[in-house]
Amino acid sequence: MPKYYLQTYGCQMNVWESGIVRRVLADAGFAETGDERDADVLLMMTCSVRSHAEQRALGRLGTFRSLRSERPGRIVGVLGCMAQRLARSLVSDHRADIVVGPDEYLRLPELIADVRAGTSGLVATRQTSECYDSVLPARGLSPSEASSRSAVSAFVTVMRGCDNFCTYCIVPHVKGRERSRPLAGIVSEAERHVAGGAKDITLLGQNVLAWRDGRRRFPELLGTVAAALPHVRIRFLTSHPRDLDAELLEAMRRPNVCPSIHLPVQSGSDQVLARMNRGYTREKYLAKIALCRRYLPEVSLTTDILVGFPSETEADFKSTLDLVEQVRFDYAYMFRFSFRPGTGAEKIEPKVSEADAGRRLSRLIEVQNRITAERNRELLGRTLMLLIEGPSPRDSGWLGRTVTNKVVIVKGDCAPGDLVRCRVERINGWTPVAEIPARAAAACSGKA
Ligand code: SAH
Ligand code: SF4
Ligand code: F3S
User: Is the per-residue pLDDT at 89 higher than 70?
Assistant: First the structure.
């Protein structure tokens, strides 16, 4: 049986898509190996969101090429977003044998066979408007079986692609148009994860709030999944601020929907937001934050922020810092703008120097880190219900997650999948540390 090795880079959606690839390859008689030296086919699932992500994958591709030269007949393939973006140049400049974009994974076995038969440098980057839900069953495969192993926390992709075309972003170009998966497939996939031991399910999409199935919209999907799995924590990621409304927040009042929202703001300046094509102003964003807090007083709010976007002035950056101080996000993912060829930002001037963007990023990280630490300190002395996900990689405890999506180090006797109620005793750096009182581990669910 031929063996393949698959390395996954990029976002959680790529992890899900790697599941599709595994399904397709297993069906074609391939076995997976975790040892690249043992593999006949070396594959990587890639990301294009920032130049750094591509550089990392291209570096790894060099290792794959050396492994290929050690064993004639070995095949090197690049999959995913960078495969879609760089296409033929991955063959001509980086000597990949196979290049497969996000809509073409079903063709992998055929492409591998063609390379074995002597044709090399095959590029499959046709984009479709279909979801894998409609094409996999025709081949006797189910997308809901894609992810075989269920962790305590599982992710279910509910929609692919994006129609927003924010001017910095490559995603709509490489992932194609928005496509929602049908409700029934999502629910059965979530149920399968739970049967396999999952206790926490995240519904995933570049803009989950754009999900639709006929007349159904995302709040209904959320309500349906939450009702079908009443003892499981339900989350979702990512929400576009423009699409967040009272109907969603109403659906989030269900007891097992987690009160945490990731709401990328990107910038606090109106002129930058307009040039980014984000579809909201600073004032509208702040109004949405206020709405979230009105409906869900305990809600935790996280965000993405981008600095150094073309035309961003020192005053624009100050507006971002000011917004961060005003909102007091629980956590933020912060990035320096990375130019992606073919995006709208190409025409926006003036560009911000690397030095200025770097300085702004450091300043922003400094401010947000202080706020993150302060928010975590608010947990001191509180009793929380924590879902144990696994051992803590850095010390002797366990990693537990709150309903508000905060990670807490837990000391005491427990196991992955346990729900434990315990008190935060101290803060280590900015990580809360809690201790389980003897014999307190209890299997129950609900918010705390
Ligand atoms: N769909 C999500 C985010 C997708 S990409 C949303 O709408 O918010 C994740 C984050 O990467 C973005 O929120 C943005 O902050 C960042 N990002 C996207 N393109 C980028 C680029 N060209 N340079 C730097 N950061 C970028
Ligand atoms: Fe990119 Fe904007 Fe779509 Fe998010 S909403 S994936 S940032 S284009
Ligand atoms: Fe990257 Fe593609 Fe995800 S560009 S962030 S892997 S959708």
Answer: yes
